[in-house]
Write a structure and sequence with these properties.
By secondary structure, the chain is mostly helical. It folds into two domains: 40 residues; 145 residues, no CATH class. The protein is built from six helices and five strands, in the order ααββαβααββα. Strands 3-5-4 form a three-stranded antiparallel beta sheet. Strands 1-2 form a two-stranded antiparallel ribbon. Strand 1 and strand 2 form a beta hairpin. The chain is elongated.
Length: 189
């Protein structure tokens, strides 16, 4: 037994050092050197003040701002500590009731808007933290935001176009608009 104990302890200590110290240090160094912005949380700062992150949505309720996807995190919206979906299936009556209420709220916020409400404005993502909306969801909100800010619709549409990201590598995903970046661009006008 003594002959086996020493090699096991040496192997345990060696693997602990390699997998618990060396590997994390190397990965952290590579992340900081090659992907510093992403490794540090993709933070967005303006005038030395932290505004948020590119990868977690924020609550915007004022008429002068674009709204993001609905957050499923409770009790606080966009809480990364409680990331989850709503767990309502497509046939669940509670989901249908929530969607109807959200559509009604969007119509109340912009009564003259007769366009169809894009699905991403009334449903949450799987994580409940999605920071982006579809270009259609942004287009749906343009007239409300332009009116609330006293801006031309054309200028707000131009800001939406500037904030729209295409498919990754030209083929992956869908075009999307980061709501925080768009709202910060509006505030910069």
């Amino acid at each position: 037994m003594k002959n086996l104990l020493r090699p096991m302890l040496v192997l345990f200590v060696a693997l602990t050092v390699v997998t618990g110290v060396v590997y994390p240090a190397v990965v952290t160094a590579i992340g900081q050197a090659a992907f510093s912005h992403q490794a540090n949380g993709s933070l967005i700062e303006r005038d030395g003040r932290l505004m948020g992150t590119e990868i977690i949505g924020q609550q915007f309720d004022a008429p002068r701002y674009f709204r993001g996807r609905v957050s499923a995190t409770a009790p606080n919206p966009y809480n990364a500590g409680s990331s989850s979906g709503s767990n309502f299936g497509p046939t669940n009556p509670a989901l249908a009731d929530e969607i109807k209420a959200r559509i009604a709220a969007l119509h109340d916020a912009d009564p003259g808007n007769e366009a169809a409400v894009p699905v991403d404005l009334v449903t949450s993502s799987g994580s409940g933290l999605d920071p982006e909306i579809s270009p259609a969801a942004a287009a749906y909100q343009v007239s409300r935001v332009a009116k609330a800010r006293g801006m031309s619709v054309a200028r707000v549409e131009a800001l939406v176009a500037q904030a729209t990201s295409g498919r990754q590598f030209g083929v992956l995903g869908e075009p999307r608009v980061n709501v925080l970046k768009l709202n910060l661009a509006l505030d910069g006008e």
